[in-house]
Amino acid sequence: MIPDALTPAGRELLRRGADDLGLDVAPHEEQFARLLALLRAGNERLNLTALKTEEDIVLKHFVDSLTTLRGGHLDGEWKTLDLGTGAGFPALPLAILRPELRLTPLDSIRKKIDFVRETAAELGLSNVTPQVGRAETLGQSAEHRGSYDRVVARAVAALPVLAELALPLLRVGGVFVAQKGPLSEEELDAGRRAAGEVGGRIIEVDPFTLPVSGDARTLIVLEKQRPTPAKYPRREGVPTHQPLF
Ligand code: SAM
Fold it and tell me: What percent of the chain has pLDDT over 90?
């Protein structure tokens, strides 16, 4: 049995952050408390995240992950891939708050996905199917290409890289929600051009600040409008080392 780890101050911070997003986190507090405990225990073994204090984890992992719900693009029974989930962010907080989402957290690092799988099982999250692999490989596989309603990513790569990795995985009409820090005009422009090249369009740019800390964030929403040309995504590592724009 894992002891609950959230202190009264941590619970208050989680509530405040969720309130700010119009979310009711109260019914899920015990799951977040267990997630905090598991993350801390996992971190000692696996060095999963640089964030170590309760305040940092609650704000910069839990609340920050839930900001991907802004705009309502993830409201629905969507088959959703979390590209580069790391220790399970935003996938695990989303799976807790939105049990109707069918989530595939994806990462190329096996030990991270093992942690996400064990943690999802401990939390009783039956809507999470973790997957080890690279987005470049899944994007060219018959099983995954064009098969997701939603792709979400937090803090993984520059926008043009993300567009090439995410859009092939979406069905036409599907939506990609990318959460990033502050976004420059150059990156946005390169992202727009890359989106066009891989079959999509940026439909929303939502700059906001994280509650309490005031850290700048941007949610960028892309819609897939036509099939991605077969040559994308290019082979492993190429999207990152030679971005489209
Ligand atoms: N999204 C998590 C978060 O916000 O805490 C992790 C962010 S971490 C900076 C980026 C993660 O993306 C790493 O775990 C890395 O292994 C994974 N990653 C990067 N490129 C990837 C790719 N092409 N396919 C799969 N995973 C990838």
Answer: 92
